[in-house]
Design a protein that fits this description.
The protein is mainly α. The protein contains twelve helices and no strands. The chain has two domains: 92 residues, Helix-hairpin-Helix base-excision DNA repair enzymes (C-terminal) (Endonuclease Iii, domain 2, Orthogonal Bundle); 108 residues, Endonuclease III, domain 1 (Orthogonal Bundle).
Length: 230
Amino acid sequence: MSADRAIDARRLEASCRDLIGRYDVADWWPAQTQFEVLVGAVLVQNTRWMNVSTAILELRRTGFLAARRLCEIDPALLQELIRPAGCQRVKARRLVSLATWIHDAGGLHALDRLPTPELRSGLLGVHGIGYETADAILGFGFQRRVFIADRYARTWLMRMGLVSDAEPQGYESCRRTVESALLGSPLCMNDLHAAIVLHGQAHCGRQPRCLDCPLTTWCGQNGFGLPPPA
């Protein structure tokens, strides 16, 4: 999707409202603290949330679910604590890099005061944090208005007929285009991401499972965004 790609904002808004209304997105990202959201965003890379929950419980039980404590932890101990989330060596390094960045910035309260572009740039400079993880942290951790243009989101937009499958589906161009077209609050953006993920897992993954899909009215599979024939 090119950066200047026109998008039907009214149809996008309507389809997003419909999507959110179809799924239970309440408490979709459970966390007791802001820092826990950030930790979860790193640990969930390439694994299931059930595994992340186990790792977070271990960090909480041992008192290491805080940026300052992670800056001091023995790497071998951290790897053992987060082992349930998989790729423990890689993720341990990423967690320490994230905790160090937070500590050096003056803590989460100092980061909360930064404008979103500056905060996003800082996150992308942390080892192991890419676009999707950075935007998840911005949306769910800092309550900023961002669209997480992950694979589920780009697939959903294409199948709705809002973009052509002949167009490049780049993360950044998709994010910018949708953010400029939608008027939703940060909470609405988070609810939209949750609904897109739930819909992708149920129906709209790599291989579409269209039987009983609740969004056939919007689906581009039925005529590029037009209602299916009667």
